[in-house]
């Protein structure tokens, strides 16, 4: 019976390691520049189409507004992050 329990523990550890790898890959995707560029490009194209459809003045420039909003929202802002982390640690 000890060997069965040992195998079970090994399988559990393997599952945890596989899950950790998936979580690391998901985090890498969420923070990747490739993802940011793809979303920013899509945002610009969709905004441009909308600006053209509504006949906005300077649609190529106007489409940058939501695109830059997205790009700014992805910045890590290290100083603010440090303050937030320290506050959470002290709670």
Provide a quick synopsis of the model.
The protein is mostly helical and 91 residues long. The chain is 84% helix and 0% strand.
Description of the structure:
By secondary structure, the protein is an all-alpha fold. The protein has one domain. The chain has 5 helices and no strands. It has helices at residues 2-30, 33-53, 59-62, 64-73, 78-89. Helix 2 (33-53) packs antiparallel against helix 4. The longest helix is centred in the N-terminal third of the chain and has 29 residues, at 2-30. The chain is elongated, with a radius of gyration of 23 Å. The mean pLDDT is 89.
Protein traits:
91 residues; single chain; mainly alpha
Counting structural domains, the number is 1
User: Approximately what portion of the residues adopt beta-strand conformation?
Assistant: under 5%
> What string, H for helix and E for strand, traces the elements in order?
HHHHH
Identify the overall geometry: elongated
Query: Which class best fits the helix and strand makeup?
Result: mainly alpha
Distance between the termini: 45 Å
Could you tell me the mean pLDDT? 89
The value of Rg in angstroms is: 23 Å
Summed up, the helix count is 5
Major sheet description: none
By DSSP, the count of extended strands is 0
Give helix % range.
over 70%
Low-confidence stretches: none
């Amino acid at each position: 019976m000890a060997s069965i329990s040992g195998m079970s523990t090994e399988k559990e550890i393997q599952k945890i390691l596989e899950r950790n790898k998936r979580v690391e890959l998901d985090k890498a995707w969420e923070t990747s520049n490739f993802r940011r560029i793809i979303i920013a490009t899509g945002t610009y194209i969709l905004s441009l189409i909308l600006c053209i459809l509504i006949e906005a003045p300077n649609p190529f420039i106007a489409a940058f507004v939501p695109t830059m909003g997205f790009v700014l929202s992805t910045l890590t802002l290290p100083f603010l992050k440090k303050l937030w982390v320290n506050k959470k640690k002290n709670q």
